[in-house]
Specification:
This protein has 456 residues and is α/β, with parallel strands linked by helices. The protein folds into 3 domains: 120 residues, no CATH class; 109 residues, no CATH class; 186 residues, Ribonuclease H-like superfamily/Ribonuclease H (Nucleotidyltransferase, domain 5). It is built from 19 helices and 7 strands. The strands form 2 sheets. A 5-stranded mixed sheet has the order 5-4-3-6-7, with helices on both faces. A two-stranded antiparallel ribbon has the order 1-2. α3 crosses α4 and α11 packs across α12.
Length: 456
């Protein structure tokens, strides 16, 4: 009876000691190398494979950390035992060596070996009692020093930050406006979908406004980086992850800068950028240099435009949808069925430009759209040099942008451009090419091009 009472008395105490679970299948150095790979721009799946763990593990690491590195990337100090040393200790301990002999072998003091064998002994295992993996896991858990965030400590500061970030907006009369009901799905909002309405101050605005609103209260201070960490990192407390929907980007995970640098078009290399284009193209003295683009309509329909820089002569490319567009689902990695994929645009340009004499086929400048990913083959087919404008720089193709504006009189936005036949496109191009232009001394583009051909 006494033993039974004693066992019952220990059960409540046993319940207070939470089980740490089992050691994971990865090591600390693997997690460090994982975040180094992430910092270099790799995806979570590729980084996981590079360090020798499952891709699902890498995805979980990235999502649990909110895209922010949760571990120190600096090498472990030699003051602490490494996994390699623990493996050697485990082998020698299994052989029955004493702590002094093990200490001499691994160049550590006997007290260090004795404390290691006692504190980091394996639990729920065989009689060996000490395993390197379990010991490293216990040491890593014990080394954690969780710090309470400033937002979790101060209710006043947390309420201020949360109100400016996710507070309700109001009418001029003061009545609150809820906005659309948008559930939190743990991911970034979809395209062309409702967003959550909130006051939506940026963390930088909140951090700097605190100084204005509380000039004499030093406790009401926080950096914008601390706000971002409270939003993205689980376990930081104070702010819920779902409040990331109130950020301008609505991004649920933080994206490393190196990863964003790798998002450029892979087919655009430095040697085909507009900075490498010859100077003769800019002064418009020599004809044969063209600018191109697409105008987009309803149901992803498109028409290609080619404009000669010197004479403003315009040619239009018909890009009809492929068979099965709008009916059959697109095959993964298959051609775009809308008709303005890379191969379709390449063939349309080649067919249209090859009717011109060779002296009018010198170069083509395009934006960095994926429709010209086949530019290398286009250069072989036509003999034209291909150049790409800088991102978000439409003024570098001003002639083409101006022409597209004129074409919108015939092809308004929101209309189906695929319904127009080849004859209709030729008629519109003829209308533009026979319209007097002030920049040409009131000559038409057709007359200017004809004079150049006759002089040649």
């Amino acid at each position: 009876m006494g033993v039974h009472k004693q066992q019952k008395a220990t059960w409540p105490m046993r319940g207070k000691l939470r089980s740490p679970g089992r050691p994971p299948g990865w090591q600390r150095d693997q997690r460090q190398r994982f975040w180094i790979e992430i910092a270099q721009g790799k995806t979570s799946e590729d980084a996981a494979i590079a360090v020798g763990v499952a891709s699902a593990v890498g995805t979980r690491w990235f999502r649990e950390a909110g895209g922010m590195c949760p571990v120190s990337l600096s090498p472990l100090s030699t003051r602490y035992l490494s996994l390699k040393e623990r493996e050697e200790i485990a082998i020698l301990n299994a052989k029955g060596w004493g702590v002094r002999r093990i200490g001499r072998q691994v160049n550590r003091s006997p007290s260090t070996i004795s404390r290691e064998l006692r504190r980091n002994a394996a639990t729920r295992t065989d009689s060996s009692g000490y395993r390197a993996v379990n010991a490293q896991w216990h040491a890593d858990r014990r080394a954690r020093r969780p710090k309470v965030s400033k937002l979790a400590q101060s209710d006043k500061l947390r309420d201020y930050v949360q109100d400016r970030l996710a507070g309700k907006i109001a009418k001029p009369s003061g009545e609150l406006v809820a906005g659309p009901e948008v559930p939190w799905i743990g991911r970034r909002h979809g395209r062309r979908a409702d967003r959550r309405w909130a006051r939506a101050w940026s963390p930088e605005q909140i951090a700097n406004r605190l100084v204005v609103d509380f000039p004499h209260d030093e406790n009401m201070r926080i950096s914008h980086e601390a706000i971002y960490q409270a939003l993205y990192v689980q376990g930081r407390g104070a702010l819920r992850r779902e409040l990331t929907a109130c950020l301008r980007t609505g991004r649920a995970l933080r994206v490393p800068r190196a990863r964003t640098k790798g998002r450029g078009k892979k087919f655009v290399t430095p040697e085909v950028m507009i900075s490498e284009r010859p100077a003769e193209v800019a002064d418009r003295a020599i004809p044969g240099h063209w600018e191109g683009d697409l105008i987009i309509g309803l149901n992803k329909s498109a028409i290609g435009t080619l404009v000669e820089r010197t004479t403003r002569f315009t040619m239009l490319l018909r890009l009809p949808p492929m068979e099965g567009h709008g009916i059959e689902p697109r095959v993964k990695n298959g051609p775009p069925l809308a008709g303005h994929g890379a191969e379709a645009v390449r063939d349309a340009i080649a067919d249209q430009i090859m009717v011109l004499p060779e002296q009018l086929r010198r170069s083509l400048t395009w934006d960095q759209g994926a429709e010209l990913a086949q530019h290398a083959q286009l250069r072989i087919d036509t003999g034209m040099a291909i150049y790409f404008a800088d991102p978000h720089s439409p003024w570098q193709r001003g002639t083409n942008e101006n022409t597209n504006g004129l074409l919108r009189q015939y092809f308004p936005k929101g209309t189906d451009l695929a319904r127009h036949s080849r004859d209709e496109l030729d008629a519109v191009a003829l209308a533009l090419n026979t319209r007097p232009r002030k920049t040409l001394g009131w000559k038409t583009p057709a007359e200017a091009l004809n004079e150049l051909l006759q002089s040649a």
